[in-house]
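new request in #modeling-help
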Amino acid sequence: MRGAVLMAALAVLALPAAAEPPAARIGELRELVAQDCGSCHGMSRAGGLGAPLTAEALAGIGDEALEATILEGRPGTPMPPWRGLLNEADARWIVRHLKGETP
Amino acid sequence: MKRLMALGLTVLLAACAGPDLRGTGDLGLVVERADGRLQVVETTGSTSLGTIAGLGDLSHASVVFSRDERFAFVFGRDGGLTKVDLLRRRIAGRVMQSGNSIGGAVSQDGSLVAVANYTPGGVKVFDSRTLEQVADIPAVGADGKRSKVVGLEDAPGNRFVFSLYEAGEIWLADFSDPKAPAVTKYPGIGNQPYDALVTEDGRHYLAGLFGEDGIAMLDLWHPEAGVRRVLPNYGKGEQPLPVYKMPHLEGWGASGREAFLPAIGRHEVLVVDTATWQEVGRIPVAGQPVFAMLQPGGRRLWVNFALPDNDKVQVIDVPSRTVLATLVPGKAVLHMEFTPRGERVWISARDSDQVTVWDTASLRKVAELPAAKPSGIFFTARAHRTGL
């Protein structure tokens, strides 16, 4: 019983962690966006084989749609699904990062 | 008077024949992509000679060389075409020629440098000496729209060949008369060509297709015969893995009749018979290959990988088609370049901020050079190879 309460408490504690990736992970994500997304979208995100990912270019597109694109990819185009390497929290952080809401 | 002249001559000669007098055949460039900078390196002692800065956005930058191997042309993502002097280690010319470029090529006679552009899609051709624009070819396909240009290669006869990504076309531009280039268009070659190569002998242009299986091939000895599809099974096929990094076709080389291609979305290298253009085998490897590069001589094949296996390089023994060794040169291995005769290979590891040099016979590391986020490595010997 005590264990169950503890587990429930832990589950609640785990929620904010899922909303924002840990600091070390954020560093990795920043690199990933610059370098690995950059290989198709340009390091300055001005576009390449993939569309521009600048804050202006993405301004009109909803966060959830962008998160879905990142996690599921765009079938029929070279945009791959990143689910194998990124989770929801990562994708959410990347979208905010692309839109200029996080440094 | 005579003595004075002789003295003057000696002084003059001494001034010219300073310590800087050297050849360029063992020189090369390492792209430090995040800093918009190049390192000038030499492969005889495996050292770095210095840097050239101020080249703009160098993500995915590529480099080709002038036929005298003294100058390099660098194509940057910001649309900059920069000519650098390897001996003086400085920028010799720079033009912002588009919004976004991806690569280019030098013509057979060395007089022209062509640049492939994404936005606005097309090819621009420049005088390689002055960087003055000679021609502008907007890539408007049969669909009436402008396409991104990919896979721009030089071909014998002062021709350039390239592909239109959105429109799915191959264009052959003949610059034997640079003032009146003749462009032959091949529409309907397949869905989303994304990269291409010209074989070492300059005969075949091969374009990989992202949107469907197979490779579009143009025989440059018989361009009138049109583009045909080879390797019908090359592609993603059934159950592909996500492709985090597009494989490159450059590095293709034939060992006897066999050539090697990185599979798309699979942990395999494909073996191709270049006489029949059929797949004749598959070699299982450690991850999704990005480059599959044949060592000069053709005995071994070196392969690097996309995420998450991009810390490894595998060396394949060509006759037995087996993996000889798995090396771990560092984090995020992006490129490999062989010395002209293949006794060494230089490997860039972006996230380890270093370039390592390996002895290709013993597979031992012989040197490490610090470099800031290194990507491409390019040696001057490329100047004398068609399609590089």
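bot summary: Chain A has a mean pLDDT of 83.
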